[in-house]
Amino acid sequence: REHGIDVKIIRIFNTYGERMRIEDGRVIPNFISQALHGKPLTVYGDGSQTRSYCYVLDLVRGIDKTLHSKLNTPVNLGNPNEMSVLKLGKLILRLTGSKSTIVYKSLPVDDPKQRCPDIALAKKTLGWNPEVDLEDGLARTIAYFRRALSLRGTK
After folding, report:
1. Residues 24, 31, 75: CA angle, nearest 5 degrees
2. How many whole angstroms separate alpha carbon 114 and alpha carbon 4?
3. Which end of the chain is more exposed for a tag (fewer CB within 10 A), N or C?
4. How many CB atoms neighbour CB 20 within 10 A?
5. How many helices (H) and strands (E) does the chain have?
6. What tens digit of pLDDT does each residue of 39-93 get?
């Protein structure tokens, strides 16, 4: 405000999709990589903690709408549809056709129980809403991971 600069602040929540790094360290790349390698999926705690996952193309649309808007307050961009980490793991096992099992490890002390964006402002002021269904986005991401791993010489 002091310098009259048009600034945009976007709070991004758990984005996934093609071109993610295989060793990214977040839950979706971890689960997909483990499933495609036939390794056990690592779930921390009992897996009841919830997350919401926003497909990358939805996020890019939201960023574009924000950049071309008059909005000058922080806006959350993410998918408000929550899912437990355990349910996500089971979904990825089904979509990959993997016979991997699930192993449970201690939950890190600072791991939040819930992570879900309130996108009311984005809906109201930008007319933005995520459109890509989680299963469809995961199927696209899994196909990308299969190609990336085959190029590495790994199945």
Report:
1. 60
2. 37
3. N
4. 19
5. 5, 8
6. 999 999 999 999 999 999 999 999 999 999 999 899 999 999 999 999 999 999 9
CB atoms within 10 A of CB 95: 16
CA dist 14 and 17 (Å) reads 10
On whether the CB atoms of residues 146 and 36 are closer than 8 A, the answer is yes
Length of the chain: 155
- The set of residues, in sequence order, having a beta carbon less than 8 Å from that of 17 and lying 6+ positions away, is 55, 56, 57, 137, 140, 141, 144
Task: Give the Cα separation of 78 and 140 in Å (integer).
Answer: 18
Contact 71, 123 (CB under 8 A): no
> Does the pLDDT value for residue 31 go beyond 90?
yes
Q: Which residues pair with 43 in a beta bridge?
A: 104
Angle at 42 between CA 25 and CA 33, to 5 degrees: 55
